[in-house]
Write a structure and sequence with these properties.
With about 725 residues, the chain is an alpha+beta fold. Among the domains are: about 290 residues, Glycoside hydrolase, family 65, N-terminal domain (Beta-galactosidase, Chain A, domain 5, Distorted Sandwich), CATH 2.70.98.40; about 130 residues. The strands form seven sheets. Strands 1, 7, 8, 9, 10, 12, 13, 14, 15 and 17 form a ten-stranded antiparallel sheet that branches. A hairpin with a 6-residue loop joins strand 23 and strand 24. The protein is globular. Bound molecules: beta-D-glucopyranose (BGC). Beta-D-glucopyranose (BGC) binds next to helix 5.
Length: about 725
């Protein structure tokens, strides 16, 4: 590829920043994040920006650590991006002098972050600087950065120095902690241009080696090393390339120093162009699987691709022990914990575009089953109760107390105690994965154990009322405004689904005999248990008014007072709690996010269209969308109801949620559940996809501004192209 070319011509694949935006440095850093599933880095500048709001950070998926009296979190890794550039005695710093030209762009087609700057230093000398980086999609342990500098009108000394330093202590705000997570075991720089840091996480004792191979090139000469002083003339271009490897290992293992150095040095020997070509080829292969093309406005196409690119590149690799948190590897919010976002909002995308990746995400839930068993036991239940927030053990990591953002006083957080639905969300998502892939090995080897253990949990979680029916009391649905509710609709319907799915699996004659027997013995499952699951399912309270079709979100919900619709319709960027106050938020009929609306999409076959319409009309105007999960859920549900205008409005909010910082928190990282929700709305919403049968079907209803919607997916190992127009869908097998 020609790296000297200016902006890539395809603006439908490019996010561009054309001028410096000092007030929003962290926002752009999130937008320009890059990941390859193992390593994720924010799009911070290479030159140091001390004292600004810049938050340079690199993370590794699944590498958690805990500090004393704190929760596990994904810590920022050692800094490998910082580059000190001194131009004839003036340190390159965009805060000084004059920025003559500035363009930064995310080339999503090739997976590159690039920046071109022409800068005049305070003494009036002008220099052209170019930066290019990628997190290799061909070799996930490798990241590459190239810095190029050319004086335009001066001659003198150019100093270049690449840092490799221990991570700074995090700033410590809200849920973030304030001590370093790594202790240094060893660091070394060699004359051959390699350098490494061997570290270990303080509490989880996991070794991490960051190794780099560094090389400067100028006037046809290659010089290995990290720091250089070069004599330069106007027009003479110099570059400093680095090839970085990040390798972690199991707790207490020796740091994999040799291997990391070897990988970095081998990448360097192979050369920049070879690494770039392999990465770009892998990126293009990814687009062949994930792209959703529209014949419609270019900005919508770009926004669609932005959401897909950021989600697809977060997927862990087979064998990794990791899933995707609400901000992926793009920020510290939510500490990298894993929520239902991964299963309900993101997993379907992977199941149909990257089945191996989806399997890896679900294997994470299998490997955290022990923690879920511990949670159930501690709460007096049987089986497995998944953590609302999960890290590397599956134990509950949701904070019980958080400081009130206004007063600083501690507030009790009940999600980890009450948000039971996650325990059904996991098997539900597995079932969707199985429908997409037909992966029977996963079903028998992993899923069955999860199904049985979660069904056991539900059977022990219910209470019997006087009429002998089963209730789920004192719980919390996705609408987190209402705490300690009874018979939450989302929870009860999915719990019933879970109980029946487990009983059906137990009775499934295709279950290989030996595997079935071994599992039954291992879990000490008694023959009466599946019968109990069916009985509990049959008697579980399921709110649904047969006459009106309305599903009461939780007992007594529809009797609560209504907030004025004018308030809810008012455009706002602050949470509803700041408008109507905390008392009303928890007492009135105002929802944080889609609850019955998303339930009726997930279990669409349980409800007729009239009921879905009635509930959409009831709950949508009462929803504050204070969770970033909400708008895409509404786009999806509205599109499936054929309400295309309304669906477009919600889709627009989802498409631009991060790009236009619509919720004001993009600086803290991208909203990954929303990126998955965008794909759901396009594919299951507007294209009306169904994967219930032997092969996919689609009943499209397109936005007026689009003439076409086209995508591919993999169903049971077969690739299909789905081409939708207003006349219907053409579905073809793809090679
Ligand atoms: C939402 C949850 C979500 C979490 C992480 C919360 O604000 O209410 O549903 O799982 O954020 O995205």
């Amino acid at each position: 590829m020609n790296l000297e070319e200016a902006l890539p011509p395809d603006d439908r694949f490019t996010i561009v920043q054309n001028e410096m935006d000092w007030l929003r440095l962290p926002f752009w850093e999130s937008i320009f994040s890059l990941s390859n599933g193992l390593i994720g880095m924010r799009g911070s500048f290479e030159e140091p920006m001390p004292g600004t709001r810049s938050r340079p950070m690199t993370f590794m998926a699944g590498l958690y650590d805990t500090l004393p009296a704190a929760l596990p979190e994904l810590p920022a890794l050692p800094d490998w991006l910082t580059t000190r550039i001194v131009l004839g005695g003036s340190a390159f710093d965009l805060r000084l002098g004059q920025v003559k030209q500035f363009t930064r762009w995310l080339d999503m087609k090739c997976g590159l972050l690039r920046r071109e700057v022409i800068w005049q230093d305070p003494r009036g000398r002008t220099t052209r600087l170019s930066f290019l980086r990628f997190a290799s999609l061909a070799d996930c342990s490798l990241s590459v950065l190239s810095v190029r500098v050319a004086p335009l009108d001066w001659s003198g000394q150019l100093e270049l120095e690449a840092d490799l330093t221990m991570p700074p202590v995090p700033a410590g705000r809200g849920r973030e902690s304030s001590r370093s997570h790594f202790e240094l075991a060893k660091s070394q720089s060699r004359a051959d241009g390699t350098c490494w840091l061997a570290t270990r996480t303080r509490q989880t004792r996991r070794p991490l080696v960051v190794a780099g191979a560094y090389e400067a090139r100028t006037a046809g000469e290659s010089i290995p090393g990290r720091a250089f002083i070069l004599d330069v003339e106007p027009g003479q271009s110099c570059r400093l390339d680095r090839y970085m490897t990040f390798l972690a290992d199991a707790p207490d293992a020796e740091p994999p120093t040799k291997k990391a150095r070897h990988v970095a040095a081998a990448a360097w020997r192979e050369g920049f162009d070879a690494q770039l070509d392999r990465h770009v080829a892998a990126c293009q292969e990814m687009w062949n699987r994930i792209d959703v093309e529209i014949d419609g406005p270019a900005e919508d196409q770009r926004a669609i691709r932005f959401n897909l690119f950021q989600l697809a590149t977060l997927c862990p690799r087979p064998g990794d022990f990791a899933s995707i948190g609400p901000r992926g590897l793009t920020g510290t919010r939510y500490l990298g914990h894993i929520f239902w976002d991964a299963e309900i909002y993101m997993l379907p995308f992977f199941s149909l575009t990257n089945p191996q990746g989806a399997r890896t995400l679900l294997t994470y839930r299998y490997r955290t089953l022990e923690g879920a068993r511990r949670k159930a036991k501690a709460n007096g239940y049987r089986g497995a109760q998944y953590a609302w927030e999960s890290a590397d053990t599956g134990d509950e990591t949701c904070p019980r107390w958080l400081p009130d953002p206004q007063t600083g006083n501690p507030i009790r957080i009940w999600c980890g105690d009450l948000q039971d639905h996650i325990t059904a969300d996991v098997p539900y998502a597995i079932d969707q994965y199985l429908k997409a892939t037909g992966d029977e090995a996963f079903l028998w080897d992993y899923a069955a154990e999860i199904f049985f253990e979660t069904a056991r949990f539900w059977a022990s979680r219910v209470s019997r009322n006087d009429a002998g029916r089963a209730d789920i009391l004192d719980t919390m649905g996705p609408d987190e405004f209402h705490i300690h509710v009874h018979n939450d609709a989302y929870t009860n319907y999915l719990a019933r689904w879970n109980l029946l799915a487990a009983a059906d699996l137990y009775d499934n004659s295709a279950f290989p005999k030996a595997a079935r027997q071994a599992l039954i013995a291992r879990l000490a499952l008694t023959p009466d248990e599946p019968g109990t699951w069916r009985e509990v399912a049959a008697n579980l309270t399921l709110p649904h008014d047969e006459k009106t079709g309305l599903v009461n979100q939780s007992a007594g919900f529809t009797d609560r007072a209504d907030v004025s619709p004018d308030i809810l319709r008012m455009p706002r960027r602050v949470p509803i709690i700041d408008v109507i106050g905390p008392e009303l938020t928890v007492e009135a009929q105002v929802l944080k996010q889609a609850e019955v609306v998303i339930l009726q999409y997930l279990l669409e076959n349980y409800f007729d269209k009239r009921s879905r319409e009635v509930n959409f009309d009831y709950y949508e105007p009462r929803t504050s969308h204070d969770s970033s999960l909400s708008v895409s859920a509404h786009a999806l549900a509205a599109a499936r109801l054929g309400r295309i205008e309304q669906a477009c409005d919600y889709l627009h909010r989802a498409l631009y949620l991060d790009l236009d910082d619509l919720v004001g928190t993009t600086a803290d990282g991208l909203h990954t559940a929303n990126t998955g929700g965008v794909w759901l709305s396009l594919v299951f919403g507007f294209a009306g996809l169904s994967i219930e049968g032997d092969r996919p079907t689609a009943t499209p209803r397109l936005p007026a501004a689009w003439r076409r919607l086209r995508f591919t997916l993999t169903h049971h190992g077969q690739r299909y192209t789905i081409d939708c127009t207003c006349d219907g869908a053409r579905i073809e097998r793809a090679p």
